[in-house]
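As a warm-up, study this chain.
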Amino acid sequence: MQVKIRLQRFGSKKRPFYRIVATASGKQRDGRFLDIVGLYHPISAPDSQIRLDNDKIQKWLNLGAQPSATVQDILTKKGLWTDFAQSRESRRVNKIKRLNTAGKTNKTKAPAAAEA
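Now compare it with the structure written out below.
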C-alpha cells in the first residue's frame, strides 16, 4: 500500500478549504484517510492560509509517503520539503559511507583470518 499526502476538499460551492491528509493512494479524494497533517484555506488571508503539523508530516515522509504536486508546493512554501530533502540526502550519504567503511574492514579482516 503506497501512502500519499494529498488534499481532501471541504466547504461549499466556490468556498473551498482543504485538509492535508495521509491516505492510501487507491482511496477516493474525499474518502477514508490515515492521518490529518494540516489545513489549507486558499481564500483566507495569506498569513493564515496554511497550518501544518510538522512532526506528523516528517513522520509520514520518513515512512515513504509521496506528496501530491500541490502538497509539495505547500511544503516548499513552508520550508519543510527542502528540510526533508536535505535530511534524506545526508542520510543517504551517511549510509553509503557506512557501507564503504564496513566493506573495507571486512576486506582487511579476511586476509588476516586466512593467514591464521
